[in-house]
Design goal:
The protein has about 170 residues and is mainly β. It is about 15% helix and about 40% strand. It has three helices and eleven strands, in the order αββαββββαβββββ. It has an eight-stranded antiparallel beta barrel. It has a two-stranded parallel ribbon with strand order 1-10. The longest helix has 12 residues. The N and C termini lie far apart (about 115 Å).
Length: about 170
C-alpha cells in the first residue's frame, strides 16, 4: 500500500489551486513607466523658395504668361500656357537655387491657369488661389492671390501676393 499513497498524494496535489503569494490581489497590475523619455517628433524641414531667375522662366513654354509676385515683390512662380483648352500650362519655381518645372494638374491652357491653377511634378505641388481683382492699366489681369506649396518631407508653405496674367 505504500506505493498507492504517494501516487494518491501526487494526484491530489495536481488538482489543488496554486498557492497565492502573500499581499497578492486580483487588481490589474500597474504598468511600469520607462525611464527613457519618448523621442520628440521631428519637425518637417521648411520649404525654401527662391526668386525665379530669367533662365528658369525661359524653361516654360506657351503663348501667354502669368506670374506670382509675393507681397515683397519677389517673383516666385512663372507660368505659361497656350490658348488651347486641351493643353496643360507649365510653371517653374525655384526650390532654393534649383529650378523645378511643373505641369498643370488639369487641362485648360492659359485660360485655366489665369483663373488660378495647381501645378505639380513628382514631389512638389504649387497652387494659386486667386482673390480680389486689381486695376492693371493694361490688357492683362491682376488679382490678389495666395501661393500654396507642398513637398514631401517639408512643412506646407503659403505666401500672399499678386497673380498677374497677360500677353
Amino acid at each position: 500500500m505504500r506505493i498507492v499513497i504517494p501516487g494518491l498524494a501526487l494526484a491530489l496535489a495536481a488538482c489543488s489551486p496554486a498557492p497565492v503569494p502573500p499581499n497578492a490581489s486580483n487588481a490589474e497590475p500597474t504598468p511600469i513607466e520607462s525611464a527613457i523619455p519618448p523621442s520628440p517628433t521631428p519637425s518637417p524641414t521648411p520649404l525654401v523658395l527662391g526668386r525665379v531667375t530669367e533662365a528658369a522662366a525661359a524653361q516654360v513654354s506657351g503663348e501667354l504668361r502669368c506670374a506670382f509676385l509675393s507681397d515683397t515683390s519677389d517673383l516666385l512662380l512663372v507660368g505659361a500656357g497656350d490658348v488651347d483648352k486641351a493643353s496643360r500650362a507649365t510653371a517653374v519655381v525655384m526650390r532654393g537655387a534649383t529650378p523645378v518645372l511643373l505641369t498643370a494638374r488639369a487641362p485648360g491652357g492659359f485660360d485655366a491657369m489665369a483663373q488660378g491653377s495647381s501645378f505639380a511634378d513628382t514631389d512638389l505641388t504649387a497652387s494659386i488661389t486667386r482673390g480680389a481683382p486689381r486695376e492693371t492699366g493694361h490688357e492683362g489681369s491682376s488679382h490678389t492671390a495666395t501661393l500654396s506649396v507642398e513637398a514631401s518631407g517639408t512643412a506646407p508653405l503659403a505666401i500672399d501676393g499678386v497673380w498677374e496674367c497677360g500677353p
